[in-house]
Amino acid sequence: MKNLLIIFLIFFSFACTQQKLTIPEKSEMYELALPVYVNEKGQEIALNGIFKNPEKIDSVNIPGYNYKLSKKNEYIQLIPKSNTKPVETLKVWIKGYPYSLILLLDKKVDYTFKLKDDKKQYHSVRVVGNFNNWTPSEDFLLKDNEWKYSIKLSPGKYHYQLVINHDWMLDPQNPEKESNNIGGYNSVLNVPDPTENAPKLSTHSFTTDKITIDYSGDITSVIALWDNFTIPSEIKDEKVTVQIPAVAKSKKRSFIRMWAFNENGYSNDILVPLENGKVLQDIAQITRKDKHAQILYFMLVDRFNNGNKANDEPVDDPDIYDKANYWGGDIEGITEKVNEGYFDELGVSMIWLSPITQNPLDGYIEYPAPHRKYSGYHGYWPVTLTTVDHRFGTSDELHKLVNTTHKKEMNIILDFVSNHVHIKNKIYQDHPDWFTELDLPDGRKNIRLWDEQRLTTWFDTFIPSLDFSIPEVSEMMSDSAMYWVQEFNIDGFRHDATKHIPLDFWKTLTHKLRANTTKDFLFQIGETFGSRELIRSYVGPDMLDGQFDFNLYFDMRNNLAQEKEPLTKLNQSLKESLKYNGHHSLMGNITGNHDLPRFITLASGALAFDEDEKEAGWNRDIQVEDTLGYYKLLQVTCFIHTIPGIPVIYYGDEIGMPGAGDPDNRRPMKFENLNRFENFVLENTKKIIHLRKNNLPLIYGDIILIHADEQTMVYARKYFDEMMLIALNKSSKETTISIELPENLRSEKWNANFSNGIKQTNNNKELILNLKPFSFEILNN
Asked: How far apart are CA 20 and CA 231, in angstroms?
């Protein structure tokens, strides 16, 4: 028996050292599959958006889940069992080959809201918060002079208010409150997170055929994948080791991924890119097809650059103010800037165009007071779905822009509007029954009820929302999106109003995009304002690649624009985003966008957080009030380019253009006659972007949060022995901080890129940073 055990151990050791992975000549999966987050109620996965031929599936294997396959294996419904592990693999067998999908279990805890009522002064109590998208809950129950309401919540921090006797208010029995970022306050609930004690992984070293990972904390098990195939791993001497499969040499780009777990939950994820089977070390090997390396630039076409004055055609209506009319920006103007090298110099890799479909030729009065009249200069009122608005250019000019962008090794995506059309769209005129109801049973208009009527609300009386419960609607809108990819070879979409459309549509669209094109790069990112849980629900291997992380943005904006807010809050917000989205997500981290007041306007004091941002833009000339706003804006730019995710520059933020609410935040782009502060911001923005673009730790590295206090924050990005440290000082004073570096972050030398003072002591265990007021620093070893 002992001899048999020795023979087995020798064979196992040899198998791990000489690991061979048998894979099919052509994969049955479209691309590297994102992990699937599964809640306790279960999850439906559209296998037809992940696998090319789901009807060929032989069998599936998921020990920790009950499941049900649909006919033709197009969908699978997963229900966790009582003993489901935090990380499991869904094994899908096709022609004898086992493909793997990662399943991450999102466990919730029971929480009960309580409100004492000894004086019996309340006749009804409900709760609203970012956990229920600010929609009032069911009534609390009164028992023994105490109102109670139980709910399941994911661990984390939540903002909420109580609705007492129909009035919204802070919880009178909870002293903890925080700013709501719009001039008021919300009560705060902190649900303890057991995953704080889950394992933590970080890259350690590699050879030509092996990758070694550091870990801390107890580990129950490790799951490792090469692309979409499970590979073995070994845990020994506080290290995790995986062999790089020999077959990886035959593929230009592939990935090693890894998760660990224990009884407290799952770890951060590890993502290591391979170039022909070797760990990628040369930044020059990154191409425009590497999703994690993207840096996105968003412009409103009408406001960016006028390249052809012959197509200028503002709406001739004295009731439409200039701010709400066409200014002449067009497709040819963008092509002009691509050819001039503007985007090359800036360093971005992907251009996002606002919608370019035909919009109405006249103006419309918006429903809310004060009932101003607007044109469709922004592009979000589609009269057609598949024609270029003649005021922006022609189909030939769009072909030229796409081809020119690709020749510059950049991608281009299009803002696509699926949720609604304009009333002059022939679809509405021919099929009014394909749209949701404008009038609610209680007599109200179903307009801008963003959360209460999330899947049916109209944006205005002249912008009807489509009813996606009707199959013809889903087919029509997904076919329309397909047209732009097939006809113009665009590289994907920014999807407008994502949360107002059911999940099934995004699965239908993703399936069509993958099944009916030959493109090996398609990127989809969505727009959803809501809880982190709601935002994440639209992201997955069968849906979108990412969404904009508005929760992190609002916390960043509130924190870096205002000196009174401690950086501990931003640190906690970043933690929660990493927990919800993973440490190598494709979520969009923005400097701002066309729906929000410009960051610099708030940071410079030109706009107060508690004033009406839109009215401010209409009623006064908003400029940069305090030049400190430029320095604060650069902190934002530094932050979004040094955390995991896709950095997104809103046009004009690279120079610190001011602007209040829409449409004041959509001023014409300024390319010439920059003042010294605008030039200062532009040059430093370029430097930050190029640091992101040229350093692997900022693309694929692990993120390690090191320090946060009232005024300073320090975190690291680590890609094996390449490391970068990022420090923020939001204080108005020069600040010195001493950081004791973890052993895996120590280096013989650190180089500062932005002229702050650094000193190493105690055999490189301690790093002393001398940070200028309102500054940031990016160090590399």
From this structure: 9
- Distance CA(83)–CA(1), nearest Å, equals 34
563, with CB counted inside 10 A (0-12, 13-18, 19+), is middle
Q: Where are the alpha helices (DSSP H) in 351-436?
A: 395-407, 426-430
Amino acid making up residue 90:
L
pTM of the model: 0.95
pLDDT tens per residue across span 342-378: 999 999 999 999 999 999 999 999 999 999 999 999 9
**What is the rounded CA–CA span in Å between residue 345 and residue 671?**
13
Confidence of residue 1 (pLDDT cuts 50, 70, 90): very low
The C-alpha atoms of residue 309 and residue 306 are separated, in whole angstroms, by 7
Q: Is the per-residue pLDDT at 450 higher than 90?
A: yes
Pairwise CA distance, residues 736 & 424, whole Å: 62
Query: How do residues 667-709 score in pLDDT, each as one tens digit?
Result: 999 999 999 999 999 999 999 999 999 999 999 999 999 999 9
Alpha carbons 492 and 525: distance in angstroms, whole number = 8
pLDDT tens for each residue of 727-777: 999 999 999 999 999 999 999 999 999 999 999 999 999 999 999 999 999
Cβ neighbour number for residue 202 with a 10 Å cutoff:
22
Q: Which two tokens stand for residue 95?
A: 């022609």
Nearest to 356 by CA among 280, 438, 303, 300: 300
- Give the span between the Cα atoms of 413 and 490, in whole angstroms: 6
For residue 15, the Cα-to-chain-centroid distance in whole angstroms is 40
Residue 656 phi/psi, 5° resolution? 80, 40
Quote the Cα angle for 649-651-653, to 5°.
70
Give me the helices (H) in 206-315, please: 301-304
Q: How does 374-396 read in b/e, with b if 16+ C-beta sit within 10 Å?
A: bbbbbbbbbbbbeebbebbbbee
Give yes or no for a contact between 496 and 300, defined as CB atoms under 8 angstroms apart. Answer: no
Q: Please calculate the CA angle 418-421-426 and round it to the nearest 5 degrees.
A: 120
The tokens for 740 are 């004791």
Backbone angles phi, psi at 29, to 5 degrees: -105, 145
State how far the Cα of 728 lies from the Cα of 756, in Å rounded to an integer: 11
